[in-house]
Specification:
It is globular and about 45 Å long. The strands form three sheets. The chain has a six-stranded antiparallel β-sheet, with no helix packed on it. The protein has two domains: 55 residues, 434 Repressor (Amino-terminal Domain); 104 residues, Jelly Rolls (Sandwich), CATH 2.60.120.10. The protein has five helices and twelve strands. The protein is an alpha+beta fold.
Length: 194
């Protein structure tokens, strides 16, 4: 962990993510203004995210993944070193969006060349995450609730999922994940690229 000029601490994943975001923009030859136009994210927010002065939210990362044509897991896996066939539980990458209360664990060993991945998600009671569109249009998702209750909206269809329930959907538009409480929810998400 290191401390930024604003006094916030940033872990190694956050620092690596910031560097990778800057690399992706540079690879395309885009200015911050051009990326802001493409993503709908302010230039100042993008600049702070690329310098690890702020930790990007799940919604912000989702928008950047859309622009760069990646899933969030692929983007996060690019922050790590060489892919391994096995990732022990203690070594699985965990990313947290503190403002929304969303915790995301990359269960699958990272590998940019594969189409499917497993992600464990956790939301606290009352947590609500909305995505305006998927990072990759037509993304196939299998959502299996392990503990608690999760309300999901995919495009305009609404579902209430309880422990053991599984939802399968292709995501082309907006999606929303909400934990109505009283406790938190833990779920497994299988993501398959089209």
């Amino acid at each position: 962990m290191r401390e930024t000029a604003t006094g916030r601490t940033v872990d190694a994943v956050g620092t690596g993510l910031a560097a990778r975001l800057a690399e992706l923009r540079a690879e395309r030859g885009w200015s911050l203004d051009e990326l802001a136009d493409r993503s709908g994210i302010s230039r100042s927010t993008l600049s702070r995210a690329e310098r690890a002065e702020t930790s990007p939210t799940a919604a912000l990362l989702n928008r950047l993944c859309q622009v760069y044509g990646r899933t969030m897991s692929r983007l996060l896996s690019e922050v790590e070193s060489a892919p391994a066939p096995v990732v022990r539980a203690a070594e699985q990458q965990v990313w947290q969006d503190r403002p929304s209360g969303f915790v995301r664990r990359s269960v699958s060993p990272p590998h940019a060349g594969l189409r499917a991945e497993l992600v464990e998600g956790r939301l606290g009671a009352g947590a609500d995450i909305a995505y305006d569109r998927p990072p990759v249009p037509g993304l196939e998702q299998h959502l299996w609730v392990l503990d608690g209750v999760l309300e999901v909206t995919v495009q305009e269809s609404e579902y209430r999922l309880e422990a053991g329930d599984c939802l399968r959907a292709r995501v082309w538009g907006a999606a929303r994940f909400r934990c109505p409480g009283p406790g938190g929810v833990r779920y497994l998400l299988a993501v398959v690229l089209p």
